[in-house]
Automatic annotation (TrEMBL):
It holds the Pfam family DUF2062. Residues 9-142 form the DUF2062 domain. The keyword Translocase does not apply. Keywords: Membrane, Transmembrane, Transmembrane helix. It comes from Desulfuromusa kysingii. InterPro entries: DUF2062. This is DUF2062 domain-containing protein. It comes from the Bacteria. The chain crosses the membrane at residues 32-56, 63-83, 118-141.
Amino acid sequence: MWRRWGFFRQFKLNVIQLARLRSEPDAIARGMALGLFIGFTPTFGVQIFLAILFAFLLRQNKIAAFIGVWITNPFTAPIIYGLEYEIGRMLLGMPPLGMNHFAGELSWSMGMSVGTPLLLGSLVLGVPVAIIGYSVTVRLIPSLRLWKIPRWPRRRNKSL
């Protein structure tokens, strides 16, 4: 049953793709760190484009950066962005936003009161996550290359 869930299938395909990259573990880990950092920025919707662009400009592994961006997906984005906002808000000493801010129209001041803490929180969380992601990936790649990842069994056509 778990094979029908797209999330697990995508995760397995990303692990397989990461293990089969023909680069040094250090190069793959640098691309992964870049992707993780960009994945933590509040640029939901253009993160993949940004990761590939910066990987190209910084000459990092583009596929690893692409995979690293998947840290923020529709399931994890609310948790990550909420945590980033709260950390940034606390560091700036701002009061929490009440529902009265959301009752009116969107304004520039509301965008600044949400965007500034979110950006600061993304930097505060993105840097350690990228460093941890680098160290985990550089150690994980050699063992992933030794690991035999089995294929999922194919469905047999019962009509024949």
